[in-house]
Amino acid sequence: MSVPETSRVYTLARRPTGTPTPDDFDLETRPTPTPGPGSVLVRTLYLSVDPYMRGRMQAGESYAEPWAVGDPLEGGVVGEVVASNGGGYEPGTIVTGNLEWADYATASPAELTPVDPERGPISASLGVLGMPGNTAYFGVTEVAQPTAGETFVVTGAAGAVGSVAGQIAALNGARVVGFAGSDEKVAYLEDELGFDAAINYATTDDYVAALEAAAPEGVDAYFDNVGGPITDAVFSNLNVDARVAVCGQISLYNATELPTGPRKLITLVEKRATVEGFLVSDFAPRFETATRQLAEWVAAGDVQYRETVTEGLENAPEAFIGLFEGENIGKQLVKVGERSDGH
Amino acid sequence: MSVPETSRVYTLARRPTGTPTPDDFDLETRPTPTPGPGSVLVRTLYLSVDPYMRGRMQAGESYAEPWAVGDPLEGGVVGEVVASNGGGYEPGTIVTGNLEWADYATASPAELTPVDPERGPISASLGVLGMPGNTAYFGVTEVAQPTAGETFVVTGAAGAVGSVAGQIAALNGARVVGFAGSDEKVAYLEDELGFDAAINYATTDDYVAALEAAAPEGVDAYFDNVGGPITDAVFSNLNVDARVAVCGQISLYNATELPTGPRKLITLVEKRATVEGFLVSDFAPRFETATRQLAEWVAAGDVQYRETVTEGLENAPEAFIGLFEGENIGKQLVKVGERSDGH
Predict the structure, then answer these.
(1) Which among B227, B246, B268 has the least Cβ separation from residue A246?
(2) Which helix (H) or strand (E) holds A229?
(3) Chain A within 8 Å of B239 (Cβ-Cβ)?
(4) What is the pLDDT of residue A62?
(5) Domain locations in chain B?
């Protein structure tokens, strides 16, 4: 497969107000970039869209650096090295890294990690065997720390992170309860992933009562991807010495004003509970160990995963926006290009 | 000094709505109780009033058991054993324990701890050498954990707990900033206790700006007694890896509806911060060690303390209500009775 003279890249057209719209993204055609000395050219096979990217779209403070208006967007990519200018990778090598939302992008070897095809489908390195899987792994094992017999609750339970987090908690012997946004997701969690209970928050009015029914012995460990009223309800059901791992707050990312909610800190005193925010990047030195463990669990069938794949780079904004509508089950990917060998 | 045939006790007249009023308390006269077998009779010398007691006045869930309407109130007392029915303490012994708001109360030896008069004034066993001092000690050393060069912020900084917490943080080498509610308290913190800065929240509109000026390098450790908008401002100034020790939320205790505030959990992700609620009672096995350390610091002049003493059991409700108006500096006590030897 030859490299075309021109190819496409998404840039940030403007900073969104509230929920992003397609007009916030520009799909531009440019001359396919040429790798400089010591660099390679990568053809994008899969692009990952992730909720945290919403923070990069705005200028305000976030843990991820803001994108500049007019600049290419970036995200997790699995791609194939198609040309090397002394960049250390042979053409044909499958790599992953944080690259442009583009058909082709250049990268230095330091920005790339080779993907081991023996570990599973290459796309899994953007999901269960990549950043989302590592986020689940460290959030559960290092922060929420559910133990056998405890009750573990996760929000965004059918997503790339939440679905893996719940399964790791179950492997630790915990009772696992998930919140998700559709009956299809609830069925997936209960019937396929083995969650002890799942709650469809979209059709539930009283989260506290629903949680009391699903977690009658209270909540010992909570993995929060969502925030807002569901988290308020979980706080009302915490047990003494509970641990809360705050991974994300997707319900708030598109807010134009900081939302308000009940002040709950006194609950932490009553329950001697701990709330800890974490970033997966802080655990980078241990990614390889965690990924190996996740791959073993996947191979043994102990951790299952699903992917929602949107076809075509041109549909990446739609796939990204869909994250906030809860349209995906499991990891949301965008299929961008084909491998040279046709796999 | 003989024991009178009748004496006084405060009971809960009704559950308060909002801020307690004197009508919520009944001062009753009763026959002075007689100690049963294995018990002693204690004359109250000092009674402690503490913010957490507000929780015991209402029926709702709290970490302290609710008082029943019509029942005697209870609180920390320093008293003198005046009669023993085989209760193990000699008359004349000074003891402390959780006893009734009364001139005289009976107690079993297990409820009492002897007060070592060598350690300081006996009233200090309700303050810096008692529960409030221990609360400050464990909240700082075990939860907030400020280290040399870090910035430590405390709310309710001129109170019994906050004033000691700030001084312990300073002993650890931290820069110490306190929030308090009057210029007199600010002067006390800065001029007498050696706080690096103090902020009068009652005359400050922009807590974030005031905190940025007082803690220009951000907040590494936060000891929260107050909650509400001050805590919101501190959260906005947290540094990476900050620790928040939640001790109390006095600004919320008299609320008739759960107050709302900005949702701040995403801040914990951005800053990888930890928020931990704690109860001093969980550290009971180590009280003796902590109290000995506090007594050494007091003797060396490294920790100073002040008491606000209200005279007369009949004024205990007023002293208690005053806690929520910020009327006290340091430990709020009620002087109830005199020692038999006139000390």
Answers:
(1) B268
(2) helix A229-236
(3) no
(4) 64
(5) 6-126+306-335, 131-282
Contact A205, A179 (CB under 8 A): no
Q: Which residues of B touch A260 (CB under 8 A)?
A: 260-263
Q: Give the type of residue at A193.
A: L
- What band does A65 get if pLDDT is binned at 50, 70 and 90? confident
Tell the CATH topology of B6-126+306-335.
Quinone Oxidoreductase; Chain A, domain 1 (3.90.180)
Task: Check if A300 contacts B (Cβ < 8 Å).
Answer: no
Neighbours of B242 (CB within 10 A): 26
Say if residue B70's pLDDT is above 70. yes
Give me the interface pTM, i.e. the ipTM. 0.93
Domain range B131-282, CATH architecture: 3-Layer(aba) Sandwich (3.40)
pLDDT at B62: 64
pLDDT at residue number B332? 98
Q: Please state which CATH number belongs to domain A6-122+306-335.
A: 3.90.180.10
Structure confidence by residue, pLDDT tens digits, A38-63: 999 999 999 999 999 999 998 876 67
Which residue stretches of chain B are H helix?
53-56, 131-138, 160-171, 183-187, 207-214, 229-236, 265-271, 287-300, 316-325
Does B135 touch chain A if contact means CB atoms closer than 8 Å?
no
pLDDT digits (tens, 9 = 90+) for A193-246: 999 999 999 999 999 999 999 999 999 999 999 999 999 999 999 999 999 999
What is the token pair recorded at B273?
Answer: 């911060």
Say yes or no: B61 contacts chain A, CB-CB below 8 A: yes
> How far is the C-alpha of A194 from the C-alpha of A208, rounded, in Å?
23
CB B168 within 8 A of CB B178: no
Contact B12, B71 (CB under 8 A): yes
Could you tell me the pTM of the whole model? 0.95
φ, ψ of residue B338 to 5 degrees: the values are: -110, 150
Position B343 confidence tier, pLDDT thresholds 50, 70, 90: low
For B280, counting Cβ atoms within 10 Å of its Cβ (0-12 exposed, 13-18 middle, 19+ buried), the class is: buried
In degrees and rounded to multiples of 5, residue B74 shows phi and psi of: -130, 155
Residue A256 class from Cβ within 10 Å (0-12 exposed, 13-18 middle, 19+ buried)? Answer: exposed
